[in-house]
UniProtKB/TrEMBL annotation:
This is D-glycerate dehydrogenase. Pfam families: 2-Hacid_dh (PF00389), 2-Hacid_dh_C (PF02826). It comes from the Bacteria. Residues 7-320 form the D-isomer specific 2-hydroxyacid dehydrogenase catalytic domain. Belongs to the D-isomer specific 2-hydroxyacid dehydrogenase family. PANTHER family: 2-HYDROXYACID DEHYDROGENASE YGL185C-RELATED, 2-HYDROXYACID DEHYDROGENASE-RELATED. Keywords: NAD, Oxidoreductase. The keyword Oxidoreductase applies. Residues 112-288 form the D-isomer specific 2-hydroxyacid dehydrogenase NAD-binding domain.
Length: 321
């Protein structure tokens, strides 16, 4: 009988993925549907051949050192700012992620937020539930048209491109800002490359699709928010710290911009003081990839990566340089 690996899974993921893992591994899954406490994570990685972890687990030097026997940490996410890949590489530990399978779900969520804010969907739903609807009113819940407007896309990787492609039906002009000109994006969307300040000044809707790195931390702060139109709507489905949340609360409160749609937060799961009191923000709890199909695909991909690494192969979605 071939060796069964000893694996830890830091939180329950969709069943088909766990079933596949169980065929090859003796595994322990965090039984609580909550983020693992730091001390538990440090204890549970010990003696494991591999770990399937989440974006909510901080996989830093301390954890990687505690996981003395691990050959791989397979992240159940496309983003990997939670992992010290550089240090893992020095220790010879493989790191992998789940790119591609959540592109469409995340792009769809950015549109869901854009429409929810532009057409005040959540605010008016709340109004109805509170029994306040007393008939059609010419001035009730005036929002903003989307068709024909200018869409600013910051970061045009897989998700930014998919998001922009979906704008076609709304006859929008597309501006984009990126680390470099992206001819493929332009061919697919008709988007025009501009510098960040021009994008901020000219766009009606601005959507963030950059990974979190020291370069993108607080990419949108007080200065950038001031450059935006007073009617602008900001959408963030990337990572919370890309936006300076304190500056955002101020901009939303003081009408520097019109609204925001957020799926991610600077200090998740905390939400910046003041944000929840504002009607011009729609806030979802980091669910952009949360569809049945997508989360299952992410699970299968994370397991495939894990099994490849355990079997001595380079995983298909390896992040080590
Ligand atoms: C990711 O995968 O990075 C998303 O933020 C969660 O699905």
């Amino acid at each position: 009988m071939s060796k069964r690996w000893n694996v830890y899974v830091t939180r329950e993921i969709p069943k088909p993925a766990l079933d596949m893992l169980a065929q090859y591994c003796d595994m322990e899954v965090n039984p609580e549907d909550c983020v693992l406490k730091r001390e538990v994570l440090l204890e549970k990685v010990q003696g494991r051949d591999g770990v399937l972890c989440l974006l909510t687990d901080r996989i830093d030097k301390e954890v990687l050192d505690a996981a003395r026997d691990a050959v791989i940490f397979s992240n159940y996410a496309v983003g990997f700012d939670n992992i010290d890949v550089e240090y893992a590489s020095t220790r010879g530990i493989l790191i992998s992620n789940t790119p591609g399978v959540l592109t469409e779900a995340t792009a769809e969520m950015a549109w869901a937020l854009l429409f929810a804010v532009a057409r005040r969907v959540v605010e008016s739903d709340r109004y109805n539930r509170e029994g306040k609807f007393n008939g059609w009113g010419p001035l009730h819940f005036l929002g903003q048209n989307v068709t024909g407007k200018t869409l600013g896309v910051i970061g045009v990787g897989r998700i930014g491109t998919s998001f922009a492609k979906k704008a076609q039906g709304f006859e929008m002009k597309i501006l984009y800002s990126n680390t470099r000109v992206n001819a493929d994006f332009e061919a697919q969307t008709g988007g025009k490359y501009v510098d960040l300040d021009t994008l901020l000044q000219e766009s009606d809707f601005i959507s963030l699709h950059v990974p979190l790195s020291p370069k993108t931390k607080h990419l949108i702060s007080g200065r950038e928010l001031k450059l935006m139109k007073k009617s602008a709507i900001l959408i963030n489905t990337s990572r919370g710290p890309v936006v300076d949340e304190k500056a955002l609360v101020k901009a939303l409160k003081e009408g520097e911009i019109w609204g925001a749609g957020l799926d991610v937060y600077e200090k998740e799961p905390e939400i910046a003081p003041g944000l929840a009191e504002l009607n011009n923000v729609v806030m979802c709890p980091h669910i952009a990839s949360a569809t049945e199909e997508t989360r299952t695909k992410m699970g299968m991909m994370a397991v495939e990566n894990l099994l490849a690494g355990l079997g001595g192969k380079i995983p298909p979605n390896c992040l080590n340089p």
